[in-house]
Amino acid sequence: MQVTSRHFKDGAHEALQDKDIQTAFSKVKTGFSVARAARVEELPEFEDLRDTAVDIKNHVIENLDYYLEYFEDQVLLQGGKVHWCNSYAEARDAVLKICRDADAKTVTKGKSMITEEMALNDFLSENNIEPIETDLGEYIIQLAHEYPSHIIAPALHKTKEQVSDLFHVKHQEYGLTERQTDPQALVNEARSVLREKYVAADVGITGANFLIAETGSTVIVTNEGNGDLTQSLPKTHIAVASIEKIVPTLEDASTLMRLLARSATGQEMSVYTTFSTGPKRKDDIDGPANFHVILLDSGRSELIGTDKQDLLRCLKCGACMNHCPVYQAVGGHSYGWVYPGPIGAALNPQMVGLEEARHLPNASTFCGRCEEVCPVRIPLPKIMRHWREKSFETQVTPKPERWGIGLWAFFAKRPALYRLVTRCGAMALRLLAGKKGRLKSLPMMKGWTSVRDLPAPQGKTFMDQWKQQKRGNS
Predict the structure, then answer these.
(1) Among 374, 243, 267, 154, which Cα is nearest to 257's?
(2) Where does residue 278 fall: left (phi above 0), alpha (psi -120 to 50 degrees), or beta otherwise?
(3) For residue 332, what pLDDT is reported?
(4) If you average pLDDT over residues 146-158, what whole number do you get?
(5) Which of the 8 DSSP states describes residue 301?
(6) β-strands 438-439, 236-242: how paired?
(7) Cα torsion angle, 148, 150, 155, 157, sign
(8) Cα(455)–Cα(462) distance, rounded to whole angstroms?
(9) Considering just the CA atoms, what is the radius of gyration of the chain in Å?
(10) For residue 467, what pLDDT is reported?
(11) Crossing angle, helix 46-62 and helix 250-264, to 10 degrees?
(12) Which of 116, 119, 199, 224 has the smallest number of Cβ neighbours within 10 A?
């Protein structure tokens, strides 16, 4: 997919003016986050599980080479194949070769963020293979020629009315001419279209929430069951996963799954949890004849041993964005790449380059809610702060911003001068504001005053009030 992160400000401005997006994302505040809080309250050991999950993931990262090789050995023992890929191009080519070997004309796909990274759908289409998204959210945005705005709810930016209009136009060719408005009727309509696609598909492609080293299994969690059909009906199943998805044992995967659904959708457990271990055996009723796992690095290994290594713990649950006030205001597309919200602000500069994604780490109030709710305790504000510092040090930040920060730092290092300038600045703003007590515009403050007035400082400075309170207490 095309990277547009450098246009974050423009995208955010457009999203703030878009009534449909604002309507759709208003539900985030009272949906996933409220459900998560309720499920966490029901589980007294939730915080202990988080600590255990951190230990599991840290252990895996420290021994990643061992567990990946062990996983490959188990996949081979089960009759499957593993393809090691350093780059998106290698992974795409590996998928294409498997599809061509299967003489595939159509491919069904389960929801997968890693294939979004690879821009796999466009690549397959360019090579005359039709990819068909089977997750309802992914199916909707595929029809609309858009990309996901949320990790677990790809079509979160769409209203019911927009989906109704979309289906009414796109499903005419299937003889479905009546415009549906009821949510269940819309689901049934999509299901009727997709059912034939499952049966006709030559290859099924899924992602993987976990890769289990001890058994060579891939695990997907879904709420629709589309993943089961995608990987069991076609003759060939391809699981595409990034290398950090590995976990040592089934027990470790179970621990992480207790956190995943609660953090993502506020469920005790996702409706479907599917384990795939190799191709169909002699006595199996159904299943693929061929089983392939694409292991993709794409810069992940470069994070190991750095101060951004904690990002490799991510379960892709979306809890950070569900609780982020910035994401809730501007939506997912503003971030301009696969991962929006706080995880995108921390990860995307690594994946697409700091120069391209420099706005994203600044799209945060540093309220800390993202770290507070992260099931594996990723210090997202700390990582975003790192990118801000890196942007300044490497002069990716524009000169006016660097000069402004440098000027502030000059005064901040001289407390007495800082307090004097602060008092003078507060007095000047009060004089400019006059009786109204607010300013409609101010040089270098257009980002604020373009949408709201700037209140003039009232009363004494914080330091003066602090001294006064200390004298009163003594």
Answers:
(1) 267
(2) left
(3) 94
(4) 94
(5) G
(6) unpaired
(7) negative
(8) 16
(9) 25
(10) 86
(11) 130
(12) 199
Q: What tokens appear for 279 in the block?
A: 């191709």
Could you tell me the two tokens for 234? 């076609």
Under 8 Å between Cβ of 254 and 309: no
Q: Mean pLDDT, to the nearest integer, of 237-266?
A: 97
Residue 467 or residue 344, greater confidence: 344
- Closest by CA to 110, choosing from 297, 240, 211, is 240
Q: From start to end of 261-352, where are the E strands?
A: 272-276, 290-296
Domains along the sequence of the chain with CATH: 41-151+202-301 (3.40.50.10420), 400-473 (no CATH)
Token reading at 187: 């689901």
* Residue 174: Cβ-neighbour burial (10 angstroms; 0-12, 13-18, 19+): exposed
Contact 296, 88 (CB under 8 A): yes
d(CA 206, CA 297): 17
Q: Judge contact between 219 and 262, C-beta under 8 A.
A: no
- Neighbour count for residue 248 (Cβ, 10 Å): 18
pLDDT digits (tens, 9 = 90+) for 391-434: 999 999 999 889 988 999 999 999 999 989 988 988 888 898 88
| Tokens representing residue 148 in the block | 């996901």
Determine the Cα–Cα distance for residues 360 and 182; give it in Å rounded to an integer: 37
What is the CA 281 to chain-centroid distance, rounded? 36
Give the residue from 376, 359, 246, 350 showing the smallest Cα distance to 298: 350
**Contact assessment for residue 36 and residue 319, using Cβ atoms and an 8 Å cutoff:** yes
Q: Which two tokens stand for residue 297?
A: 């690095």
Residues 55/247, Cβ–Cβ less than 8 Å: no
Provide the 3-class DSSP secondary structure of residue 154. coil
Q: How far apart are CA 448 and CA 421, in angstroms?
A: 21
**What would the mean pLDDT of 320-339 be, rounded to a whole number?**
95
DSSP string, 21-89: HHHHHGGGGTTHHHHHHHHHHT-TTHHHHHHHHHHHHHHHHHTHHHHHHHHHHHHHHTT-EEEEESSHH
CA dihedral over 93, 98, 103, 106, signed as positive or negative: negative
Is 216:71 a contact under the CB 8 Å cutoff?
Answer: yes
C-alpha dist (Å) from residue 156 to 150, 204, 320, 375: 7, 25, 15, 22
pLDDT of residue 317: 95
| Interval 12-53: pLDDT, tens | 999 999 998 998 888 777 788 999 999 999 999 999 999 999
**Coil, helix or strand for 347?**
helix
| Start-to-end CA span in the chain (Å) | 63
